[in-house]
Amino acid sequence: MSRLTLTKTAEILLSKDNILVLCHRYPDGDTIGSAFALCRALRKLGKKANVMCGDIFPSVYSYIYSDFEQLDMKESFIVAVDVADKSLLGILEKPYGGKVDLCIDHHGSNGFYAKDTYVDASSASTGEIIWSLLPKLGVEADKDIANAIYTAISTDTGCFKYSNTTAKTFRTAAKLVDIGADVAKINTLMFDTMSMGRLKLERAALDSMRFYCGGKIASIALTAQMFEESGASEGDLEGLSSLARKVEGVIVGVFVRDTGAGYKISVRTHQPANACEICKQFGGGGHNAAAGGFIKAHSIDEAVDMVINAAAKHIGEEYVG
Ligand SMILES: [Mn+2]
Q1: pLDDT tens digit string along 24-54?
Q2: Cα distance between residue 58 and residue 237, in whole Å
Q3: Tell me, what CATH number does 212's domain have?
Q4: Distance from the CA of 21 to the center of ligand 1, in angstroms?
Q5: How far is ligand 1, taken at its centre, from the CA of residue 317, in Å?
Q6: Over the stretch 240-267, which tens digit does the pLDDT of each residue have?
Q7: 307 and 171, same structural domain?
């Protein structure tokens, strides 16, 4: 359960082979981009390495993984990237949750479930950490690695818009462009393309929006039926949780989704509200402006009510549900 420096992290990786890199469930651009970038870097060193995720990768990311062949390999070292807690491994928690040798992450709420952990909460994405790791591994990034890391960074910063974006984020992105990252193509895919399912899902989500505490808090409640009827896929959910926070005056945007196996909550905040503090009350976590968790409730209305209550208390407002 020790906390590593980046140099030590590189040293450990250099001393291992047959490395399995794990992503978190509901995989996003950061966990996918970080995993494939790291895996490709390890292979460049002549090592055997594979990527695994408990859920299917959304097809929008296929340019990262489509020409990537899984190797015949018996893993002897397990790395998790962007996975703050072992429960986030999803169906991989059972086989691998207690066996993660190394976790590389940027969540301040990291649960230190791995044998060794490198966590940098000031980093906007795990992708940025992988980028800093490359020279320590002695690996020069190629175009595939650049595209994977660019995806990780751009998606976790909302295309360089969120408050986690730093000068280092832009400097890293600039170097990725130098290497040949397909910036326009990736940005169009990630931020300017909508499937018909997503359109229907977004329409339903907007219809469900409710406001509380004089408009400082807003909620979106997505039922299993709404999801079903939209024809959307899991990947179409990306960014949906940020919609409520976009409304003028809203400092806490609450997104609750009935997954069929419990209620997934996502909270997005503007300062001074802190999303992580709100989600912690339900055993969740994340970042100051974006956090999430799961809650048990009898109905989606009850689940929304619980989070709105916590959010109202958090910002010092009165809420009577
Ligand atoms: Mn991330």
Answers
A1: 999 999 999 999 999 999 999 999 999 999 9
A2: 10
A3: 3.10.310.30
A4: 15
A5: 31
A6: 999 999 999 999 999 999 998 899 999 9
A7: no
